[in-house]
Amino acid sequence: MSNNTIRVLVAKPGLDGHDRGAKVIAQALRDAGMEVIYTGLRQTPEQIVEAALQEDVKVVALSSLSGAHLHLFPPVVEGLRQRGAADILVVGGGVIPDEDIPELKQAGIKDVFGPGTTTAKVIEFIRDNVK
Amino acid sequence: MYDQSFLEKFRETKAQFDSKLDAQNQKRPERQAEFSTDAGMSIKTVYTPDNNSGLNYDKDLGLPGSYPFTRGVQPNMYRGRYWTMRQYAGFGSAEETNNRFHYLLEQGQTGLSVAFDLPTQIGYDSDQSISRGEVGKVGVAIDSLKDMETLLAGLPMDKVSTSMTINAPAAVLLAMYVTVAEKQGVTPDKLNGTIQNDILKEYVARGTYIFPPGPSMRLITDIFKYCAKNIPSWNTISISGYHIREAGSTAVQEVAFTLADGIAYVKAAIDAGLDVDEFAPRLSFFFNAHLNFFEEVAKFRAARRLWARIMKERFGAKNPKSLMLRFHTQTAGCTLTAQQPDVNIMRVAYQALSAVLGGTQSLHTNSRDEALALPSEHSVLIALRTQQVVGYEIGVADTVDPLGGSFFVENLTNEIEAGAAKYIEKIDEMGGAPQAIEYMQKEIHSSAYRYQQDIESGKKAVIGVNQFLMEEPKPEGLLRVDPTVGERQSASLAKVKAQRDNNKVQALLGDLRKAAGTDENLMPFIIAAVKEYATLGEICGVLREEFGEYKQQIVF
Description:
heterodimer, A: 131 residues, alpha/beta, Rossmann fold, five-stranded parallel sheet, 5 strands, B: 556 residues, 10 strands, globular
């Protein structure tokens, strides 16, 4: 991947205003040599899909701490699929109960990173899984 | 504070100590090459009178209840009455939250604190498509007066003070609160409580803004004016550093940005024609209690002193109540770990202790499971009991400002005040807090990033995350919000809309729309609409159309 910079969209779906984690991840990915676009707050899944396609990213990293992840994450994967971009890697993070993770993975979220995850782990995961 | 001859003699003794210390450090080096607080202030091996030689007792400390209020806002503090034990609570429907409130009061909590869900905080009704998945999740869903009636059912509104974490639509929720009280036979002059109503920190750190700064500030000053006349004991704003700190700021930035926001509100109210002593006594504050214990105690003391000086020197306030920084504290949610969650109980206890030693007026202690979910009833009970132990068992509430005069704490208090004052000067140069939103965001983000790097490098220990790890079973007994709450809420809203006088509602919303374009106080128009069961979403919808919406600049 070394001659091919990874482009990542860090996105905040829904009404949640907690963006400390999203911004820390965004900066860490940027410091790791990736190109990062951050959507800002209050994005609908449709807006995120649109931004991912416009920006031609390889990865979409979704962050939610408001408990609405089951409503907000799967439509992003579905939207990308419908627009012929199923190869984009979608990951999630935030306050997400363990019991919800299987459902999210089933829906195509490749992995979910909870509180206490290091940025190094996220960077490594993206490098290993981006197509 | 010390006479010159004493200090000269002392310096000789100290020089001898320093050579002894060097020898000791040669033999057994200190644990770290450098020690510093979380805000990066360097910490010496020991603090002595020489570190406080410039301190002037009368000018810098004084007595509790007197200017500059460094030692506390009341002469007797907790010897008179404990701080208000106030747990922030709310989830699901108004009925479920009302049950939690009754439970907390039965367990000895002394004030209420309402958490609203995100649609409510951003001015949407539960049946709007944008609310999908968010209804009742991080707080209670309130659509109309009907929900507020349920939320407050059976609670003694003339006796209990209620804090509402509501900002952009604060006027609407306050209108609902006053209306329910009236229906219960409690007149507005008997009401005690707080609305957060602090839009600047929403732009900077918390994210539940609706309108642009201009109309937002107008709504805030409308509330100041309305309350000064009609709800005299209400805290009209809670100028909040809590979320600034949660977003990653340091203690110094927390004080600086909060007081800079406070300055902007005071200016706006004076510009709107209010006399400073008319509204300033009802300003209140809200801070975070983080992990670095002495830094936190010093932070509260420094904030009090700096605000008193600002109000006196910059704004010429004369009423002592205008000079007092009264504050609520919440322990730091961002320090809680998902790993070994019971360890969070200890973190919360020390944080609570720092708030009490810092002279807080009210306190929320976080629950151990908050990195995982909204707190369960059992976790909330432990959290409440934690602050009861601090108050009732360990004797720290028996004298005022027990750390006052500590060489270390006084030194830190000075440094925090000086650091915050420097930031405020910079923000002043930029034209004030409303012009410095992106600047503050950048500063907070760099601190947050540094904090994360320090955890990952191991420089900052977090038990369970980078130190003392262990295998553990999956946590059990977490609270799960009923997933049908959104549908139930939409159904009951439809019923409200079918039963009210819709012509009247439309007429009142029309009146509000007209008033929004003038400089009339909007509170009476909002109260009139609320009384006829106009919904939060309808009222905010009208104002959205008139005022427009805030567009966030992306900063990281």
